Amino acid sequence: MGILTIIVIAIICFFVWQLYLDHKKINTIHLDPRGYERNGYGRLVHRDIAYNIHYKDGFANGEYTQRFRNYDIHHIDGNKRNNSPENLQVLTREEHKKVHGKY
């Protein structure tokens, strides 16, 4: 085997290992101190779901006019761990405060 072959095999092994680690991070869920689920990257699971299921289509249809980071995600049933799309609602900060009686 030549040196070029060894380098190519090493590069392939490196990328396979990175894919394995990435897969492991994506499928790791833990609770943060406030009781919300986070994935292996530290991202809030309910925000990722709401973005992919509700916001993308709503933004394209003109339902949402602001950037996603300006919205809060409301758990309709109040259960922070119930991240099913039917339980998540994209609200403005003002709407979310009204729902929780803080406004």
Characterization of the model:
46% of the residues lie in helices and 16% in strands. With 103 residues, the chain is of the alpha+beta class. The chain has a single domain, classed as Homing Intron 3 (I-Ppo) Encoded Endonuclease, Chain A (Alpha-Beta Complex), CATH 3.90.75. The chain has a two-stranded antiparallel ribbon. Strands 3-4 form a two-stranded antiparallel ribbon. Strand 1 and strand 2 form a beta hairpin.
Adjacency order of strands in the biggest sheet: 1-2
CATH class category name? Alpha Beta
DSSP, total strands: 4
Poorly predicted runs: none
Radius of gyration of CA atoms, rounded to a whole number: 20 Å
Mean pLDDT: 90
Oligomer kind: single chain
The fraction of residues in strands falls at 15-25%
Query: What gross morphology would you assign?
Result: elongated
How are helices and strands ordered from N to C?
HEEHEEH
CATH architecture descriptor name: Alpha-Beta Complex
The class by helix and strand makeup works out as: alpha+beta
**Major beta sheet summary:** 2 strands, antiparallel
Query: Cα distance, first to last residue?
Result: 71 Å
- Named CATH topology: Homing Intron 3 (I-Ppo) Encoded Endonuclease, Chain A
